[in-house]
Predict the 3D structure of the following.
Amino acid sequence: MSSADAALAPAPSVARLPAAVVALIGGCVLLVLRPPLLRATSAPVAVLVAVFALVGAVGAWWPAPGRDQRPGGEYRPAATVGLALLVGVGAFGAGRLIGGGHSPGTLTLHLFVLNSLAAVAEEAFFRRLCYGILGSGGAAWATAGSALLFALVHLTTYGAWVLPIDVAAGLILGWQRWATGSWRVPAVTHVLANLFVVL
């Protein structure tokens, strides 16, 4: 093929990307678009529930490379899972104590359910689907890449000042994913971290 033919050849299409990568990109775009979607509606809670339900469903059930368990099918020992949960929750609790500040609102059942849905959905999406896609490059790549994407999708919601905090949070959650072999431990940690913010 000549250079002129190469210049006229069509660019690789989205259809050639693995389906899991397309799902990952679509979910990230949807999470980035949360603020304008909320401004465009008179029912922001319904929009948030729909966004997180969709992202969570894609993250939890989309066939992704990698597995939520060790090679050979055995889950990590309960002591490892417990220690990873303790370290993660302890890190977020310490961050809340050190950071201080005031709660952005009173804790209500409605707020707790919405924050919990968001946390579980994001962990299924970032620590299952994203981590699984990036896992072929190794655990460090999967942990760092999922943490960076996690932080970047929050820029439109919280602003650039929170980027280092979200990267650090994503690294802790990614480490838990690696240590336990499951996205469920980071999901529990994320639910509790969201609860710490409103206490």
User: Anything to note?
Assistant: Residues 109-134 form the longest helix (26 residues). The CA atoms of residues 87 and 187 lie 14 Å apart. Confidence is low (pLDDT under 50) at residues 1-14, 69-73.
